[in-house]
User: Fold this.
Amino acid sequence: MNQDQMKQAVGQAAVDLIRPQLASDSIVGVGTGSTANCFIDALAKIKLEFDGAVASSQATAERLKSHGIPVYDLNAVNNLDFYIDGADESDGHLNLIKGGGAALTREKIVAAVATTFICIADQSKLVDVLGAFPLPVEVIPMARSHVARQLVKLGGDPVYREGCVTDNGNIILDVHNLSIVDPVQLERDINAIVGVVTNGLFAARPADVLLLGTPDGVQTRKAQ
Ligand code: 5RP
Assistant:
């Protein structure tokens, strides 16, 4: 199985996992990225078995709509049983780095609402220690230099993501060279910097389940 096939396999596995619990009024939280797109394509095949979705980005909303899946504003939804999304890295505790696609803030909001967060990823995303993937931080544009200086004090090397404007109208700093041994604390510390909207560590609210694509099939992992 190549990487694309592993992404398709985990997308289908997520649909298989949630399908027995979907009802005609269910609304599913949907993430962003190439793996999430595989999930959307698999979900579309059972679109008559649930009501609709909440999207974590404009791109995801467009893909859902292109399949004829109704997209709801999160504020119109009381609860989400499931949020399904990819990741840039996961450790064994299912702490994640996300935001490679710049959708981290909306992803974190939808994940916070959902009862169960199912992460889908190919095996290249599983790491012992988070941080080889540069940590995305969404920042209010006028605070860019201030936030960058504070991130350097935390031991990172922030790099402005050229040409990237988030769905919220903000910019992204990608923080290189962090070895993240305490992701919960670092998530908190970075979010405390004035001008930061949010950062791509999902540790205060990690995934509940990781469906990991491997050449031998999909493994189901829960936080250790
Ligand atoms: C987008 C994300 C994605 O989930 C993450 O970048 C993984 O993407 P892909 O499935 O394309 O590897 O956090 O903001």
Notes: The pocket of ribulose-5-phosphate is lined by residues 31-36, 85-88, 98-104, 107 (CB under 6 Å). Helices lie at 3-18, 34-44, 58-66, 104-113, 144-153, 183-191. The chain has a mean pLDDT of 97.
